[in-house]
Backbone:
């Protein structure tokens, strides 16, 4: 999804929702396609009751929404989808940031091929930092997507100011 008009996450219930790595993984799946509780349980290798509980938290936080239903063998199967185009945390909140990084770490360590993870620290002026922020945001959210059937890639973009460290004596 290339819609980057969604506001960054800021509500306490959203941060609570992000605090669990399974909910992060659910958001990854539901950002790609609509799924049912049963399919999510299969994809994420967990129990349907576990998925149902975490879906309630995500729905209450406004991050997932119902996407329809269909009759199946005398019952009703409900579909869900992510309600935002992207998930962005622009304020420093350790719980959600840690959960998001943990979920990405799981995907990263299971990724086939030659994934890239680079960390670099550099000195920037405020103007340089703002320009880099805007360029990274554009790179992440304006990249052209290939059609159906092509491999999906994850992009993790971060820019943060390091906490001040005491000068060496």
Residues:
């Amino acid at each position: 999804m290339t819609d980057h008009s969604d506001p960054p996450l800021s509500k306490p219930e959203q941060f609570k929702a992000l605090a669990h790595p399974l909910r992060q993984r659910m958001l990854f799946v539901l950002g790609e396609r609509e799924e049912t509780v049963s399919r999510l349980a299969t994809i994420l290798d967990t129990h349907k009751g576990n998925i149902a509980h975490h879906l309630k938290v995500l729905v209450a936080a406004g991050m997932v929404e119902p996407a329809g239903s269909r009759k199946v063998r005398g019952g009703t199967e409900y579909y869900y989808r992510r309600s935002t185009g992207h998930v962005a945390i622009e304020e420093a909140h350790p719980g959600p940031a840690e959960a998001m990084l943990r979920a990405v770490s799981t995907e990263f360590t299971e990724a086939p091929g030659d994934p890239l993870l680079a960390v670099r620290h550099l000195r920037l002026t405020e103007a340089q930092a703002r320009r880099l922020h805007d360029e990274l945001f554009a790179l992440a959210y304006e990249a052209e997507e290939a059609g159906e059937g092509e491999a999906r890639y994850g992009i993790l973009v971060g820019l943060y100011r390091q906490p001040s460290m005491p000068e060496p004596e």
Remarks:
- The mean pLDDT is 83.
